[in-house]
Amino acid sequence: MSSATSETSTSVAPARRFNLWEVIANAVRGFLVGMVELIPGISGGTVALVVGIYERLLDQASALFAAVKALFTDRQSVPARLRSLDWALLAPVAVFMVVAVFVMSGPLTTFVTTYPAVSRALFLGMVAVSVIVPLRMVYAPDLKSKPWVWILFVLAAIATFIGTGFTAAPQEDPSLPIIFVAAAVAVCALVLPGVSGSFFLLAVGLYEPVMGALSDRDWSVIGVFILGALTGIVLFIRVLRWLLDRHRTVALVTMAGLMLGSLRALWPWQDADANLLAPGADWPQMLMWTLLGAGVVALMIYIEYRTPQRPAHTVASHDPS
């Protein structure tokens, strides 16, 4: 037996037994994760943590990619690798995430286009509270030993604040290459709890056109978005995971700065070109929506914090950078 096959036999877990109730529960979890992925400011990764499947999903996704890679490097191990996957988790979560995206895209598109100021105020509160999530994942002694990372935090916030001034206005008819690149970047949010891919789309002015394409079943846009997301999973997520493993403090603090600066895109009072305006007479109502959004995310963070099962790579570890 070859060394590769021998290694497979010891590293691939045996197939799991089918459990109907587990499948149903995972379908519900997948629907919840898919639904919140459409809402700027709420991270699907955070919800996956709350419902207890985040670590398992990443492990199974990694094993699935390894099986696909084995098609080109070690085909004899592929059947065993596929049998060892937790399909009772992967299949229902993936299917019902897609179902949630198509079911909920219409109502969310209507909400954002009909009530733009209200939706921005609501999302502002959500994202503002979400900024603390990557900071909570930093290993405190590393943060104290590297006070210079706060310079990166400020620079990232300033750069994003300026950048969103040019990109936050909704794009009427974005080109397919732009949608492809945006999808590749937005999908990276799936790796890290607290970061919303929908918020990235909103910050670059692509949230409404992408959600509209989902609602209208514009398959050309949907297909390009899916291809971009798959490309991002293959190319960018490995880089992001490497950064989190090797330069955790720098990556997380910089990410928090980017999120903070991007709040510019969610200021409730803007003109059609995303220029910021002074608060209007409706500021009490906007404040109420902002506090509501902040409260929802704060509650989810609290629930995640109280969840006994904490995934290993969300628990801060020493940063060698």
Automatic annotation (TrEMBL):
InterPro entries: VCA0040-like. The chain crosses the membrane at residues 31-54, 87-109, 121-141, 147-166, 178-207, 219-237, 249-267, 287-305. Keywords: Membrane, Transmembrane, Transmembrane helix. PANTHER family: INTEGRAL MEMBRANE PROTEIN, POLYPRENYL-PHOSPHATE TRANSPORTER. This is DUF368 domain-containing protein. It comes from Corynebacterium maris DSM 45190.
